Amino acid sequence: MSCSFSKQEQILQQFKGLTNQISPKFERCTGISASRYELLSQLYNTEEINQSTLQKAVNIDGAAITRHLKQLETSGMVARRRNPDDNRVIFVSLTEEGRQRIVEYRKENMGFVKQMLHDFTPEEVDALSDMMERMQTNISEY
Amino acid sequence: MSCSFSKQEQILQQFKGLTNQISPKFERCTGISASRYELLSQLYNTEEINQSTLQKAVNIDGAAITRHLKQLETSGMVARRRNPDDNRVIFVSLTEEGRQRIVEYRKENMGFVKQMLHDFTPEEVDALSDMMERMQTNISEY
DNA sequence: GTATTATATTTGACTGGTCAATGGATAGTG
DNA sequence: CACTATCCATTGACCAGTCAAATATAATAC
C-alpha cells in the first residue's frame, strides 16, 4: 500500500530545509554568521551582560557561546572580563569597534530580510512570529 | 541613541533558534535524525532513485547525502548500486528492513509534530507551510 | 578518435551546534 | 568550620551541514 505524507508531517522538514538554505546565504550576504550577528545584536542594547544570561537570550549551547565570544574577542568586537564580585561569571560587552560594525551588519541584515519577506504583509509577519513562538513553547517541555 | 530591533529583523533569529531547538529533541523522541528520517521518507514512496535526484529532493549538500546514505547502508536500511547504464550514478532504495523501520519512525514523527502543533488549526498549518514556501522562493535567487 | 566539457559521487577541511565531563568559585548546611 | 551543592565557563568528542577539490564516467565537438 502506498501512503503519502501529510502536510503536517512535512512541516518539520520544510523548517529544517529552509533554515539550512538561509544560513549560508545570510552569511554570504551580510559577511557575518547569523549566530554571531545575534550575539552582537544582544550586546548592542546593553552595557555589560553576564555570559550566561546572554547564552539564555540567544538559546544556543554554552559551549558554542564560549567559542563565538572568543572569536569575536580576538577580532576586536567584544570585550570580556571576570566579575570581580563573583569570579565564576564573565561580563561581556561590545567594544567601540564592535558598536560601529554592528550598524553595518544590521543594514545588511535588513536588506536580506526585506528580500525574504518582500511579499509578506505586516500581519503575516506577526502571525509567523507568533506561530513560531507557540511551537517553541509546545516543544519546550520535551 | 538606543535603538531596538523590529519584529521583521528578528524573524531570522527566531527561525534559527527554533530549528536548533527542534533538531536534538526530534532525534531524542524518534530515535533518528531529522535528515535521515527525511531520506527514508523520500525513499518510501519509490522503488529506486538516483542519489542526485534524492539529493535535490531533500535539499541538502551532496557531501552530507553521501555520508548519511553510507551510514544507512551499513545499518542495513538502504541499498545502493551503480546504474549499469551510467556508471556515474548510484541507485538508492529501501531494504525490507528499512521499509519496516520507517513505519515506526513515522509514528514517532507524527507524535512529535502533533505535540508541536497541538494548538494549531489546519488553516494555520497551511498558512505556515505556504509562508515558508514563499520565503524559500524569495531567497532562492541569492 | 581524441580533447574538451559536463555530470555524479566522493573526500577533506572547516564551521557550528549538541552533550558530557572538568575545574574553579560560591552558597548553603550540619 | 568543613562538606556538600550548585553554578559558570571551558574543553573534548561527536554529528551535520557547507564549500572546494579530486575522481571517474559520459557526452560533445572538432
Overview of this structure, please?
- The structure is a homodimer of 142-residue chains.
- By secondary structure, the first copy, chain A, is mostly helical.
- Chain A has a domain at 29-127: Winged helix-like DNA-binding domain superfamily/Winged helix DNA-binding domain (Arc Repressor Mutant, subunit A), CATH 1.10.10.
- Chain A is globular, with a radius of gyration of 18 Å.
- Chain A has a 3-stranded antiparallel sheet.
- In chain A, 68% of the residues lie in helices and 12% in strands.
- In chain A, helix 2 packs across helix 5.
- Chain A has helices at 7-30, 34-44, 51-58, 62-74, 96-116, 122-140; strands spanning 49-50, 78-83, 86-94.
- At the A-B interface, helix 1, helix 2, helix 5 and helix 6 of A face helix 1, helix 2, helix 5 and helix 6 of B.
- Chain B binds a DNA duplex (30 and 30 nucleotides) through residues 20, 23-24, 27, 33, 35, 50-52, 55, 60-68, 86-90.
What name goes with the CATH superfamily of one domain in chain A? Winged helix-like DNA-binding domain superfamily/Winged helix DNA-binding domain
Beta content of chain A: 5-15%
The Rg value of chain A, from CA coordinates, equals: 18 Å
**N- to C-terminal distance of chain A:** 33 Å
Query: Largest sheet of chain A, order of strands side by side?
Result: 1-3-2
Q: Average pLDDT value of chain A?
A: 93
Shape of chain A: globular
CATH structural class of one domain in chain A: Mainly Alpha
Which percent bin holds the helix content of chain A? 55-70%
Q: Indicate the CATH architecture of one domain in chain A.
A: Orthogonal Bundle
Query: CATH fold name of one domain in chain A, please?
Result: Arc Repressor Mutant, subunit A
Biggest interface: chains and residue counts?
A: A-B, 61 and 61 residues
Summed up, the helix count of chain A is: 6
Number of strands of chain A: 3
Largest sheet of chain A: 3 strands, antiparallel
